[in-house]
Write a structure and sequence with these properties.
It is a single chain. The protein is α+β, with helices and mostly antiparallel strands. The protein has one domain (about 1-145): OB fold (Dihydrolipoamide Acetyltransferase, E2P). The chain contains 5 helices and 10 strands. It has helices spanning about 1-15, 60-75, 100-110, 125-130, 145-155, and strands at about 25, 30-35, 35-40, 45, 50-55, 55-60, 80-85, 90-95, 100, 115. The strands form 3 sheets. Strands 1, 2, 3, 7, 8 and 9 form a 6-stranded mixed sheet that branches. It has a two-stranded antiparallel sheet with strand order 4-10. Strands 5-6 form a two-stranded antiparallel sheet. It is globular.
């Protein structure tokens, strides 16, 4: 059953996930809505190619975060409140589906982290996930910011 779900998830992801009109889920903290690339402000989700370890099992936590976000959005169109632009030109925003913050949802489920470097807004959500050991908190993982830094170091060497 797990194998089937992984194959299904891979199939959905390779088909350019798009359930709502003009929406594409890029990864666990980025969407493209009506052609605008939106990065969720105040959180950091694992990179799409990032994996975690649950005992001796490799878990594709970056892919799982993307699927979790996709399922949460469903066929709804997120409503986003812009907080400006980042250095890459992406819109920074908090997005909601049926009144629920997608950022808060991802952090509370342990598949994104409060990005304390930029915001203190989601710390309580992270504390909740960490306390009950849900999502990545139940596994061995690298924080996404460390993963990116270590990945770039490996690319240079």
């Amino acid at each position: 059953m797990k194998r089937f779900l992984m194959i299904l998830a891979l199939g959905l992801l390779t088909c350019n996930i798009s359930f709502a009109d003009n929406l594409r889920v890029v990864d666990g903290d980025t969407i493209v809505l009506n052609g605008e690339k939106i990065r969720f402000a105040g959180i950091d989700a694992p990179e799409y190619d990032q994996d975690c370890m649950n005992g001796d099992k490799k878990i594709y936590c970056g892919m799982f975060a993307t699927v979790l976000l996709t399922k949460k959005i469903g066929d709804e169109t997120p409503k986003c409140i812009s907080e400006g632009k980042d250095v890459y030109g992406r819109t920074l925003a908090e997005c909601f589906v049926n009144g629920e913050s997608l950022s808060s949802f991802l952090v509370r489920h342990g598949y994104a982290f409060a990005y304390r470097k930029y915001s203190k807004k989601f710390i309580k959500d992270e504390d909740h996930a960490k306390k009950i050991k849900i999502g990545m908190w139940a596994m061995d993982f690298e924080f996404p910011w460390d993963y990116r830094k270590n990945k770039s170091k490996k690319a240079i060497s």
